[in-house]
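Let us work through a complete example step by step.
Step 1: write down the sequence.
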Amino acid sequence: MVSVYDVAQRAGVSPATASRVLSGSSYPVRARTRERVLRSAKILDFRPSMVARALVTARTRTLGAIVHDVSDPYFGEVLRGLEGAAHANGYQMFVCSSNRETQRELAYVRSLLSYRVDAILFCGGGIDDRRYGTELRRLLDGYRKTGGAVVTLAPHGYRAPSVTADNRGGAVAMARHLLDLGHRRLGVVAGPASIRTGTVRVAGFRAALAERGVALAPDLIVSGEFTAEGGAAAVSRLLDRDPAITAVLCANDVMAFGVLHELAGRGIRVPQTVSVAGFGDVRMAAYTNPPLSTVAVPRYEIGWQGVHAALALLAGEPVRSRRLPVSVVARASTGRVPERTASGRREQRRRAG
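Step 2: predict the structure and record it as tokens.
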């Protein structure tokens, strides 16, 4: 591997002079000497050592991203934004997929610290676990004291600057969408109870229903993994508890894909019998059968802005947390409440009156 000493020897200068030129130092070097060093570096195909540079600058120009599931298309788009911003600013990105396991996530944090990454970005929601939270705070507080930056990109228990989507607002808007279509008998396919992103979205669903005086019974909120299999299993339990529900609110799109699959297997038509709504607007949402109504989240923008927030922190600039707006995308998986159901409710109200 070509070293700075090789470049210095070819250019006929001292290693210190070659190092100043190649590192971009502001130390004054004659223009002709600088040109000679740069020409020698190009001829020798010199590539600076990141380890050596880190020893001098205390920066490795690397970032660490921790996602919950690298196969989840939601995180794929966030990572695309992270990588795009990192590359544009001369940074490399390490990606770790924790599978929402507390010990694995802590192990990845320790590894990133050992690699001396300049910043760590948490792409998934915080995990509600006391021991995990205590150890995470210990690791990250020490890391930040030594100049490292931490940014969260989803609802999280660790207090740090954040760039997140308006998860609660999006959940409220989607629930209102279904209420406006006449649905009053709704069920919720929620994510794991320990993941903050899912609990924030469920809280939004509850709030919107409460506004209209619609009660959401505890047994009509069924938790499952943030996967298609988790969604299918959750809606199966939900239908066993109340076969008459007319709409299902899902905590993310991938779970909604599983819900659509399970309903089709049972011969339940969407949206003629049951409407289905997701959250995230991953690319496949527009291509399901029927296309999925969902909440559009600016995932690429979250990643892009997350990196810029981290770089601002590293530069010593003040950074305020940001909550990016979301919007309801109404597609064919949601429709008006079935007429037979609506007629039955009108008859019940008439008799009660």
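Step 3: interpret the result. The first strand starts at residue 62 and ends at 67.
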